[in-house]
């Protein structure tokens, strides 16, 4: 295979964006960056022969779905009835569904929506198999899979490690029931989290060692998500080779369902300074909340980049380092406006003294951020907008009291 070098479009330089013109707070997706990711994902899909679908749990900004379809993304994976409905109504392609457990109440509607349906246990498969068989007898073409756990993972944070000890996700080899595979035509695994293709290659070794004997009976294998192919430095050639070789070895259709790869570095969270307070150290109070609008900062945890800001000289760099090297300037503790004492990101150095009304822009805030926001404390929820390639800003959604009230009783 020749060197893989897809032709990717240029992207917007954030230094050229007039941030003050964008109403705050707002999640802002950059169309040029999304197109760049989609061009790369589409090229990987074409070269590898795998089907790449979007995982709604990481990226489900449905106003962008026409762009995804434009680049040949023809399906989505849902983790609930609500996501399955969204996939059918807005993605308008294949609907793949996996959930750790299905309820008797939701399953009939999920069954109507799904093209691929993955069960987390043989108990669930046996429970709902009669309904699946009835749907097939009525003429439905329905693919059924079992999620397996090969008990191999390279995820640093336990919160995000599906292959960790005593995981409730997937069937381990010792619990696997080869005698219950009648009606099952695929296997699904998911143990990656923003990993490179070298991790996938090692993962497939463990998967084949544990479950390879069942692959001759399968038509497809879903490699799950966590394939961060749009990150700079990701080994795309290895990914393409690994997928091709697996398809050739086993004669199966391969599915990848990344979420982060679609939204990776495609936009920002724009915020404004509401107040500057001093208690030994200066602190910026922003019109966004860390706990309500950037929960992974506390859960993972990680330190997001702020455009134009840097680290204190004594600070080391974090997994998601702030913008630029450690520097001298004006240090501020950056936090939100909820009553949670820990609604704080950390301390950053800004090149100038900050004042009320100044914009603070957080980088890479589209994937796994927008999908996890809450209305905690009733604080204003950020708008959702798109910065188009022609620099036109489109307000897609503004949240108000009714959305907050609708979550309560």
From TrEMBL:
Keyword Transmembrane: no
E.C. no: 4.1.1.96
Pfam families on file: Orn_DAP_Arg_deC
InterPro entries per record: Ala_racemase/Decarboxylase_C (IPR009006), De-COase2_C (IPR022643), Nsp_de-COase (IPR005730), PLP-binding_barrel (IPR029066)
Required co-factors: pyridoxal 5'-phosphate
Top-level taxon of origin: Bacteria
Assigned keywords, A-Z: Decarboxylase, Lyase, Pyridoxal phosphate, Spermidine biosynthesis
Domain Orn/DAP/Arg decarboxylase 2 C-terminal stretches: 179-365
A single GO molecular function term of this UniProt record: lyase activity
PANTHER family registered for this protein in UniProt: CARBOXYNORSPERMIDINE_CARBOXYSPERMIDINE DECARBOXYLASE, DIAMINOPIMELATE DECARBOXYLASE
Protein name from the UniProt record: Carboxynorspermidine decarboxylase
Organism of provenance: Deinococcus taklimakanensis
The organism's taxonomic lineage, starting at the top: Bacteria, Thermotogati, Deinococcota, Deinococci, Deinococcales
Gene: nspC
């Amino acid at each position: 295979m020749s060197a893989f070098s897809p032709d990717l479009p240029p992207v917007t330089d954030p230094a050229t964006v007039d941030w003050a013109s964008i109403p705050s707070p707002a999640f802002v997706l950059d169309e040029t960056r999304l197109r760049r990711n989609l061009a790369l994902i589409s090229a990987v899909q074409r070269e590898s022969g795998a089907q790449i679908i979007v995982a709604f749990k990481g990226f489900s900004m449905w106003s962008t779905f026409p762009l995804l379809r434009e680049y040949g993304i023809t399906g989505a994976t849902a983790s609930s009835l609500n996501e399955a409905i969204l996939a059918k109504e807005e993605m308008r392609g294949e609907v793949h569904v996996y959930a750790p457990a299905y309820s008797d109440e939701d399953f009939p509607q999920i069954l109507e929506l799904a093209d691929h349906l993955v069960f987390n246990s043989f108990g669930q498969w046996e429970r709902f198999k009669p309904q699946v068989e009835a749907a097939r007898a009525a003429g439905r073409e329905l693919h059924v899979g079992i999620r397996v756990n090969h008990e191999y993972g390279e995820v640093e944070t336990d919160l995000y490690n599906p292959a960790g000890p005593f995981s409730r996700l997937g069937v381990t080899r010792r619990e696997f029931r080869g005698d219950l595979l009648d009606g099952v035509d695929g296997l699904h695994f998911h143990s990656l989290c923003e990993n490179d293709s070298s991790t996938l290659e090692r993962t497939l070794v463990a998967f084949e060692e544990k479950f390879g004997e069942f692959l001759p009976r399968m038509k497809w294998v879903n490699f799950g998500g966590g394939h961060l192919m749009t990150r700079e430095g990701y080994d795309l050639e290895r990914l393409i080779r690994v997928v091709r070789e697996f398809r050739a070895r086993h004669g199966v259709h391969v599915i990848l369902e990344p979420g982060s790869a679609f939204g990776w570095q495609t936009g920002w969270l724009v915020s404004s300074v509401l107040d500057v307070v001093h208690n030994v150290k200066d602190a910026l109070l922003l019109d966004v909340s860390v706990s309500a609008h950037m929960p992974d900062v506390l859960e993972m945890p990680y330190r997001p980049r702020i455009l134009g800001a840097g680290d204190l000289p004594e600070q080391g760099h974090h997994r998601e380092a702030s913008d630029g090297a450690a520097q001298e300037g004006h240090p501020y503790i950056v936090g939100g406006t909820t009553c949670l004492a820990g609604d704080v990101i950390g301390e950053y150095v800004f090149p100038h003294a900050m004042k009320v009304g100044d914009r603070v822009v957080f980088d890479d805030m589209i994937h796994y951020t927008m999908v996890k926001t809450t209305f905690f404390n009733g604080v204003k929820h950020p708008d959702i907008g798109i910065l188009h390639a022609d620099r036109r800003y489109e307000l897609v959604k503004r949240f108000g009291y009714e959305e907050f009230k609708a979550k309560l009783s």
